[in-house]
């Protein structure tokens, strides 16, 4: 009786999860398999492929100095974006939870932080142009107040602009989980919890969740780097998007496979520090 | 290296400040309040300031440029946006993106809700499905786009915004929706369901008369995510939408080609639509909560 009931529940679980699986298989698993397969075939040089097994695409990627430059640049942007979004996100969440006494006001201020997340990323990115440009607001203000004589070139179409755009878009991924975990902490028991080190540890686990979003989005980005660096910096994804443009599918597929493996490894490394599923469904 | 900021967050100053924050002297706030309130204010200014700049600049007249100062005021660039050939088929892109977002929203709400229910109990292979979902969330969008394009090429299927792009967007909105469902369902008390079952309700009745009404605000939140993530989705749609552009693809090509305030006008219009959707969703959630707070009679 008992086991029959359990079996029944298990199949109900499968029926409920089936639609999700039916989307993820054709639009996640199959495309990934397709990309991996394409990375092992030859290009005929005219946009077509010759279906014979080869490792040349990978040899090409690994022997090119450009590859390492691209990964170094992308990794640098990831670390900067992650560090600043964590730093700002942590203190914003801390302020909302522990300093704003009226919970309704705290929720309202929290929503003010989240609303831009639900609007277009590209528009939010280009909206920095009138501020950071050579004739932008910041340069004109600095010149008018005689802080500088010449406009600063470094503000727009530079690595700085790329990091600003990332932090602008991604800090919310730190604020939400940290705010959530801090809000769960019973303020009266903090003293006791601190002795056990418990509450702070929980926050670290939620920081891990936010980090997954930040790192995977920056590693997978190409449009922020392309526009905000003004062509000065490239990214891993940007490079194989160019390959697609000139119909070099196998080369692009090899790059794409390597990038996907690296992103997945990074995520697994972050997940290993915390059982996210247990944390979320608790 | 990667441990450093985590360690910093764990550093000693945190508990000390927290202690002060929690036990403020009677005559005022701790000094950290003023520091953090300033940080918060600057953050909000940096968050909205740039957006507000392009809304203002989109109302210039025909002499308008991409930076301040404002050159006149008119609706010239909004008219330009919808009538000029060089700005592309903006009207069509709007209509496609909105229709696509509506379909994505409906599918996302239904499937996320079902998946959320499924994940409440263990079933064979639940971890596999969970990690598939996380994989779909973190995989670089353009890689999936390339994959969909390649597979369609091999199978001889034509890509289009309402088939392949729809699926590609769902591979992004569904993991988000399910994660939101996790957060929503963690607050669902099993006692409500058990009470319904004890009173003789069937599984369907329990779901539709007890669980869904209780979770209604959370489902609205999932809908908000579904709509906005689809409406603004770019990387997964880029190589899967076929010959007709969705709005973010249109914005992208304008970003590269158009150097007039038309681009800002498009930003103003699309953000306005986002704000309406956000307002409707948050308003609905607030109204449900308010009705609940009013008491069981109103419920």
Structure description:
The complex is a heterodimer of chains A (282) and B (299). Chain A is mostly helical. Chain A has one domain: Orthogonal Bundle (MetI-like fold), CATH 1.10.3720. The N terminus of chain A is likely disordered. In chain A, helix 2 packs across helix 13 and helix 3 crosses helix 8. Chain A has a two-stranded antiparallel ribbon. Chain B is an all-alpha fold and 299 residues long. Chain B has 2 domains: 54 residues, no CATH class; 169 residues, MetI-like (MetI-like fold, Orthogonal Bundle), CATH 1.10.3720. In chain B, 72% of the residues lie in helices and 0% in strands. In chain B, helix 5 crosses helix 8 and helix 8 crosses helix 10. Chains A and B meet through helix 1, helix 3, helix 4, helix 5 and helix 6 of A and helix 1, helix 2, helix 3, helix 5 and helix 6 of B.
Q: Topology, please?
A:
The complex is a heterodimer of chains A (282) and B (299).
Chain A: H1 2-38, E1 41-43, E2 49-53, H2 56-63, H3 65-99, H4 103-114, H5 121-126, H6 129-132, H7 137-144, H8 159-184, H9 190-196, H10 198-220, H11 223-228, H12 236-245, H13 249-272, H14 276-281
Antiparallel strand pairs in A: 1-2
Helix pairs in contact in A: 1-13, 2-13, 3-8, 3-10, 8-10, 10-13, 12-13
Chain B: H1 4-9, H2 13-22, H3 31-57, H4 76-83, H5 90-118, H6 126-138, H7 141-155, H8 164-185, H9 190-198, H10 203-231, H11 235-238, H12 247-257, H13 262-293
Helix pairs in contact in B: 4-13, 5-8, 5-10, 5-12, 6-8, 8-10, 9-10, 10-13
Radius of gyration of chain B: 24 Å
Give the second-level CATH assignment, the architecture of the largest domain in chain B.
Orthogonal Bundle
- The CATH C-level class name of the largest domain in chain B: Mainly Alpha
What best-fitting shape of chain A do the alpha-carbon axes yield? flat
Low-confidence residue ranges of chain B: 1-25
Q: Can you give the mean pLDDT of chain A?
A: 85
Oligomer: heterodimer
Name the pair of protein chains with the most residues at their interface, and give those residue counts.
Answer: A-B, 99 and 104 residues
- Could you give the distance between the termini of chain A? 28 Å
- What is the strand content of chain B? under 5%
Major beta sheet, strand line-up of chain A: 1-2
Number of helices of chain A: 14
Specify the helix fraction band of chain A. Answer: over 70%
């Amino acid at each position: 009786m008992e086991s029959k009931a359990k079996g029944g529940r298990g199949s109900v679980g499968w029926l409920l999860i089936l639609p999700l699986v039916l989307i993820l298989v054709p639009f996640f698993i199959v495309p990934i398999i397709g990309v991996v397969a394409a990375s092992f075939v030859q290009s005929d040089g005219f946009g077509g492929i010759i279906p014979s097994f080869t490792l040349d695409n990978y040899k090409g990627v690994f022997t090119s100095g450009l590859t390492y430059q691209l990964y170094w640049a992308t990794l640098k942007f990831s670390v900067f974006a992650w560090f600043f979004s964590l730093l700002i996100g942590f203190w914003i969440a801390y302020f909302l939870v522990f300093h704003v006494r009226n919970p309704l006001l705290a929720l309202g201020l929290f929503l003010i932080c989240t609303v831009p997340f639900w609007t277009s990323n590209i528009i939010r990115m280009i909206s920095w142009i009138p501020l950071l440009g050579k004739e932008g607001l910041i340069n004109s203000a600095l010149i008018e107040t005689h802080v500088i004589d010449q406009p600063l070139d470094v503000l727009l179409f530079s690595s700085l602009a790329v990091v600003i755009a990332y932090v602008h878009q991604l800090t919310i991924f730190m604020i939400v989980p940290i705010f959530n975990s801090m809000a769960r902490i019973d303020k009266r028991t903090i003293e006791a919890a601190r002795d056990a080190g418990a509450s702070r540890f929980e926050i670290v686990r939620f920081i891990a969740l936010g980090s997954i979003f930040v790192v995977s989005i920056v590693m997978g980005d190409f449009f922020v780097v392309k526009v905000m660096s003004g062509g000065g910096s490239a990214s891993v994804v940007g490079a194989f998007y160019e390959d697609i443009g000139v119909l070099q599918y196998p080369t692009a597929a090899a790059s794409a496979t390597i990038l996907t493996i690296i992103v997945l490894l990074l995520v697994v490394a972050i997940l290993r520090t915390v059982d996210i599923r247990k944390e979320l469904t608790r | 290296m990667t441990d450093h900021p985590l360690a910093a967050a764990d550093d000693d100053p945190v508990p000390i400040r927290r202690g002060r924050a929690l036990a403020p002297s009677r005559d005022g706030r701790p000094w950290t309040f003023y520091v953090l309130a300033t940080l918060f204010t600057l953050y909000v200014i940096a968050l909205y300031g740039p957006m507000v700049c392009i809304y203002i600049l989109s109302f210039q007249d025909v002499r308008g440029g991409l930076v301040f100062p404002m050159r006149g005021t008119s609706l010239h660039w909004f008219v330009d946006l919808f009538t000029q050939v060089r700005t592309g088929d903006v009207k069509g892109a709007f209509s496609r993106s909105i229709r696509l977002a509506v379909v994505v929203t409906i599918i996302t709400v239904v499937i996320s809700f079902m998946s959320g229910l499924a994940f409440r109990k263990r079933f064979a292979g639940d971890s596999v499905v969970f990690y598939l979902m996380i994989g779909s969330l973190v995989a670089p969008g353009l890689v999936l786009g390339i994959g969909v394009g390649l597979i369609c090429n091999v199978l001889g299927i034509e890509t289009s915004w309402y088939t392949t792009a729809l699926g590609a967007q769902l591979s992004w909105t569904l993991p988000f929706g399910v994660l939101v469902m996790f957060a929503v369902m963690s607050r669902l008390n099993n006692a409500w369901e058990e009470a319904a079952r004890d009173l003789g309700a069937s599984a369907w009745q329990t779901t539709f008369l007890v669980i869904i009404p209780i979770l209604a605000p959370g489902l609205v939140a999932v809908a908000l995510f579904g709509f906005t993530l689809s409406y603004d989705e770019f990387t997964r749609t880029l190589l899967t939408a076929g010959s007709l552009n969705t709005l973010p693809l249109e914005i992208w090509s304008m970003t590269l080609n158009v150097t007039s305030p038309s681009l800002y006008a498009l930003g103003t219009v699309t953000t306005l639509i986002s704000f309406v959707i956000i307002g409707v969703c948050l308003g609905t959630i607030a109204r449900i909560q308010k009705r609940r707070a009013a008491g069981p009679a109103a419920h």
